[in-house]
Design a protein that fits this description.
heterotrimer; A alpha+beta; B alpha+beta; C alpha+beta; B: alpha+beta; Alpha-D-Glucose-1,6-Bisphosphate, Chain A, domain 4; 7 strands; about 30% helix; C: alpha+beta; Ubiquitin-like (UB roll); DNA polymerase, domain 1; 2 domains; 5-stranded mixed beta sheet; 5 helices; globular
């Protein structure tokens, strides 16, 4: 009987469907925090008058930049060089550098009162010219942070193979004009929130929805001038994150300072949606210049050279890690060996970026898919055929930069997706429609979801950083009553960790998953976590569950040793199972057994009977899983950056209405391969969810700034996250190529690799190529398509030699 | 987000009188359609409170209006900055006066409005039509003030 | 215009009386207090969530006098004398409503944050249309945003619940 591989109904659901979850904002607090934000993208603060706000009855305290200077140190910067000197505090001090930057904060008895008081704060600003485009920012004419003297946060060349030789030998060279991956984010439905209490013991107690608490704690402690041990973080139910909640530590610090100033009262901050969109992290925006592609006579890509600029907004925070993370998927799913990419990142007067589902890799995957489709169209090779000529086929495959793709079968995914969508029928439909002058297109998007990353890649970005490898922890305890209690470090946000962990434990201990209690959420007080603990970068299926699996092995070893002693049997004669009195360890083929309660009681209450040889048996074991990583070669930018590579292939059929310019999706198929599937229903759900994010991002969702640095899409009504009316029927399929590098064959798969963005760009280009249009922007909304139809760009966007 | 408004209108009063009126915030500010109150900060600077909003959502906005350029009796310019909940705006407005054919004065005016903050996202698309209506009201009020009861026909 | 206009926090509270999930409550509220704040903060019924501030996302959907409303866009005083049903009122004597059971069975939730509002909109839909088509289901929950599931399994769950309820 195996529980892994079954669609076990989720344990999390019972509380959530009854409205009995515990999200951060559900917990009451003494005071509520309102944050006054800058209306300007770039302005000097000449003065702040808080007297009227402070005089309002019910206001406990008001914080300004002066308070953070007195009580905080700037947050740690990951960047090397000048950017390391960026001073990032919870509140602006003398200058605001993006619209929505916190300038002051009020803690008051109610949220409404805090907001009232916030309106009474008078800030005297002197407006400055903003810089909003990354390439423009690199000219350093307008500086975002004056003290560092540049807007460049990082620059490096990733070069592998012999690029010049490959271009010299090429049958075709395709030159592609500037391309752009737009700003959006996956906007979890629960906004950021935290409750902070600066206790009399000098600790800070947080209830929050941070999704990378292992990292947040290490950032918060020095920022608040506390030892790490005094920063306690707890999370219970988290309403989605998609990476976005990694950097709400900035606001956690602010709430903590308010609690300190208010004498230790519990201070709650609940972000509004408009604040979230304005100032809580956008996905990375990237531009691609000077792209040249070398191909042989058969359309096999032999080399690419290009120059990429990432726009990280006004603060670096998790950046410039994104300058390296993309190289996990450097060649995407293609076998070319000669690549030169000059990569830079710039600060601009826009909202700082935050890892967003598919972080940094999907921008590279989109770029590579664009290259493949543009070359295919220009050389007259069908998109499916182009891919078959270029796909990597032998696994494990070492990429030019030393990453090892563990397993996969891209041609099989393509075949499966074609079958699901009924490819031939749609090709005939498209050709017929074209003959009638209609804009119908079919697009393919192949993508990778790299999971369990090697933090050593941070050293490629900054060799001084003390990070490498990866890990996750799990504690399994046989409780007094014989229950198996599992504690994770992962801090999930909807991915079903309680359920999946129960499935693994149930298999290992040969019991029913209902007999496994997995604690909900995250708590530093459990002592389970490591520095990498969190839910991000498709960590769980391999890193998280390997920790669970390893802890099971340790617990079983102890249980065997103990049972063998009591039952006077050899350990190898014992087996785990469920008997009349519940879970037990028994001597095979006999009626001799010890149930779990009896084992736990022996260790915890009745231990005078135990032998000295059992002194190390506690039935409370912690296991830390560490993937087999090495520190990359930072000079060559070479090494294995990720353990597993799940893959997805999507196909979309679209028709563009010439009047509304809406790209209507006529059919959509998605095939995924995440190796061995732990819980098919959960994996399937992740694919549908990631697909919705990508389709929403492709046609509806964009953070648009005007020339003054005002965010024009700062409410849900303007940003328009995808709804039930816009999502097409997605036909889903799965193939399974187990990973040779994880104990179970599973691969991390939560992010989905932005597949619909690649796919929609491809389908829209297929529809409009005849009209002289090359898709060079990932946002193919009706206004964008309208502009393109007014001014076809093929002449400028591409040339072939 | 920046929006430019401009236009002209004719009044029967002579240029000197029109200039004196338009370059004195205490005189012309009450003609603003949603005028609430005015306080002079110094000789050239007035703090004007107006009622702003769309539909039933209304609030007061305070505009600091400063006369920055005086060339009597032909040209004057103001700059202003204001604050509303979650946003801010700057404006620059100027007028040029010419004698009208057949008496009276032609007022040619230009206004540049720049908005910042949540205001842009919430009201950006609505500002132009709303402002257009309010500007027409202002022009009507100024014409009434500077043309006298007998002159409304003559101005046209 | 009166010069003695009160600041929002100085406006006197108003007494309201209403029924929530069959239980009667009498409370004094600020005139500006939203129904969702009243439910969450006064009554501690935190199953009803807040996901946006422009009436877009529907996480706060409850039934007011049998009609689905977004409780972030209803003042508590507007619910005076009314009957409110929230997600906490769906189960009867510990027995899940068929919609709740179907959402779990069909994996119609991941993080669970949109789920209460989604359930209430689906409940209202099935009240007026016990056998909705897929298209009608899409329309029935168009005012409810889910960021995790991609909606597919929510459609399946509502279809399954409708079928189960017709059998009852």
């Amino acid at each position: 009987m195996s529980w892994v591989g079954k669609s076990l109904r989720r344990k999390e659901d019972d509380r959530l469907i009854r409205g009995k979850g515990l999200f951060t904002d559900d917990e009451p607090a003494d005071l509520h925090l309102y944050i006054l934000r800058s209306p300007y993208a770039h302005a000097r603060i000449r003065g702040i008058d808080t007297s009227a706000a402070e005089a309002l009855p019910g206001v406990a305290c008001v914080l300004t930049g002066q308070d953070v200077l007195e009580h905080c140190d700037p947050f740690m910067e990951l960047a090397p060089g000048e950017a390391a000197e960026i001073k990032d505090y919870p509140l602006a001090r003398d200058k605001v550098v993006y619209q929505g930057e916190p300038v002051a904060a009020v803690a008051a008895e109610t949220a409404a009162l805090a907001m009232d008081a916030g309106q009474l704060i008078d800030v005297d600003y002197e407006m400055l010219e903003p810089v909003l485009d990354a390439a423009e920012a690199l000219k350093d004419e307008v500086l975002v942070h004056d003290n560092i003297g540049t807007n460049r946060t990082w620059q490096g060349v990733f070069e592998y193979g012999d690029v010049d030789q490959a271009f010299a030998e090429a049958a075709h060279v395709v030159r592609i004009g500037p391309m752009h991956f737009h700003r959006y984010s996956s906007t979890p439905l629960e906004n950021n929130a935290c409750i902070a209490e600066w206790t009399r013991q000098g600790t800070v107690e947080f209830l929050c929805n941070n999704s990378f608490p292992g990292f947040a704690q290490q950032l918060l402690a020095p920022g608040l001038r506390l030892p790490v041990e005094k920063v306690h973080i707890r999370a219970y139910d988290v309403g989605g994150s998609f990476g976005n909640k990694i950097w709400n530590y900035v606001y956690m610090a602010l709430a903590a300072l308010a609690s300190k100033k208010a004498g230790g009262l519990r201070v709650k901050w609940s972000e509004t949606r408009s604040e979230h969109l304005l100032a809580s992290g956008h996905g990375n925006e990237r531009s691609y210049y000077d792209t040249e592609v070398a191909l042989d006579k058969d359309g096999v890509i032999t080399a690419i050279k290009s120059r990429h600029i990432d726009d990280c907004g006004a603060y670096t925070r998790y950046e410039p890690l994104g300058c390296v993370i993309w190289s996990q998927v450097l060649p995407a799913t293609y076998k070319l060996r000669n690549i030169r990419i000059d990569f830079s990142q710039a600060l601009t007067n826009k909202c700082p970026v935050v890892p967003n589902r598919g972080y940094s890799r999907m921008q590279q995957l989109w770029f590579m898919e664009r290259v493949v489709d543009i070359c295919a169209h220009e050389l007259g090779i069908p998109a499916d055929e182009m891919r078959l000529r270029n796909y990597i086929r032998d696994f494990p495959y070492e990429t030019p930069n030393g990453c090892v793709y563990d397993s996969g079968d891209y041609p099989a995914m393509l075949a499966k997706a074609k079958e699901l969508i009924d490819w031939d029928k749609w090709v005939a439909y498209r050709d017929q429609a074209r003959a009638e002058g209609r804009y119908v297109g079919i697009g393919i998007g192949t993508t990778l979801d790299s999971g369990t990353n090697n933090f050593g890649q941070a050293q490629i970005m900054n060799p001084q950083l003390p990070f490498s490898g990866n890990s996750e922890a799990c504690i399994i305890r046989l409780d007094f009553d014989g229950n198996v209690v599992v504690t994770l470090g992962t801090g999930p946000s909807g991915q079903g960790h309680e359920t999946a962990a129960s499935q693994v434990v149930a298999d290992e201990l040969n019991i029913d998953p209902a007999m496994v209690q997995v604690r909900t959420g995250f708590d530093t007080a459990w002592n389970t976590y490591v520095g990498h603990s969190g839910t991000y970068a498709s960590q769980f299926a391999v890193t998280g569950l390997s920790a669970v699996h390893g802890a099971c092995q340790k617990l079983k070893a102890e249980m065997r040793k103990l049972a063998a002693f009591v039952l006077e049997a050899a350990e190898e004669d014992l087996e785990f199972g469920v008997g009349e009195q519940g879970p037990e360890v028994r001597v095979k083929g006999t009626d001799q057994f010890m149930n779990y309660w009896a084992l736990a009681n022996l260790v915890n209450n009745n231990n005078a009977v135990l032998d000295e040889s059992l002194a190390d048996v506690t039935l409370n074991v912690r296991h830390v899983y560490r993937p087999p990583f090495k520190v990359p070669d930072v000079e060559r930018k070479f090494g294995n950056l990720t353990l597993t590579y799940a893959s997805q292939l999507h196909i979309a059929v679209v028709e563009i209405d010439p009047d509304t310019c809406h790209a209507k999706i006529l059919a959509y198929a998605a095939v995924d391969d995440c190796g061995t599937v732990i819980n098919p229903q959960i994996a399937h759900g992740q694919v549908h969810g990631a697909t919705a994010h990508g389709i929403g991002a492709a046609i509806m969702e964009s953070f648009d700034y005007d020339e003054g640095g005002n965010l024009l899409t700062s409410t849900f009504s303007d940003y328009c996250p995808i709804t039930s009316m816009n999502i097409p029927d997605v036909v889903y399929g799965n193939i399974q190529n187990p990973s040779p590098f994880s104990y179970s064959g599973a691969k991390g798969m939560g992010e989905g690799g932005g597949a619909p963005l690649h796919t929609m760009s491809a389908a829209v280009q297929d529809a409009l190529h005849g009209a002289g249009i090359i898709i060079t922007d990932s946002f193919v909304s009706p206004p964008a398509l309208h502009r393109m139809l007014q001014a076809p760009n093929r002449e400028q966007a591409v040339s072939v030699d | 987000m920046g929006i430019r408004f401009e236009g002209d209108f004719t009044v029967t009063a002579p240029r000197d009188e029109v200039y004196a009126f338009l370059s004195d915030p205490q005189k012309f500010a009450p003609c603003l359609p949603t005028f609430q109150s005015l306080e002079m900060k110094d000789e050239h600077t007035a703090e004007v409170t107006v009622r702003v909003g769309v539909g039933k959502i209304r609030g007061n906005a305070t505009i600091e209006l400063r006369l920055k350029d005086e060339q009597p009796p032909t040209h004057a310019a103001y700059d202003g900055k204001g604050k509303v909940m979650g946003g801010a705006f700057n404006m620059e407005t100027s007028f040029d006066l010419e004698d009208a054919d057949g008496g009276g004065t032609v007022v040619k005016w230009v206004g540049d409005l720049n908005m910042f903050g949540k205001l842009v996202a919430l009201a950006g698309g609505l500002i132009r039509p709303v402002a257009k209506k309010d500007i027409q009201k202002l022009v009507d009020a100024l014409q009434a003030e500077l043309s006298g009861p007998q002159a409304s026909g003559a101005a046209g | 215009m009166s010069t003695t206009e009160l600041a929002a926090h100085e406006v006197p509270k108003v007494a309201i009386e209403l029924s929530v999930n069959g239980k009667r409550y009498r409370r004094e509220v600020e005139p500006r207090e939203l129904l969702v704040q009243f439910l969450r903060e006064e009554l501690r019924l935190t199953g009803t969530h807040i996901g946006c501030d422009t009436t877009y996302c529907g996480a706060c959907t409850v039934l007011l006098n049998g009609e689905p409303v977004k409780s972030c866009t209803v003042l508590a005083v507007q619910a005076d004398g009314g009957e409110v049903l929230t997600v906490e009122g769906l189960e009867q004597d510990g027995q899940l409503h068929p919609l709740q059971a179907a959402f779990s069975e069909h994996h119609g939730l991941q993080c669970g944050y949109c789920t209460p509002g989604m359930l209430m909109s689906a409940y209202a839909l099935l009240e007026r249309n016990p056998k909705p088509s897929r298209k009608e289901i899409r329309k029935g929950i168009q005012g409810n945003v889910c960021r995790c599931t991609g909606y597919h399994n929510i459609f399946e769950a509502i279809e399954a619940a409708a079928a189960a309820m017709r059998k009852e």
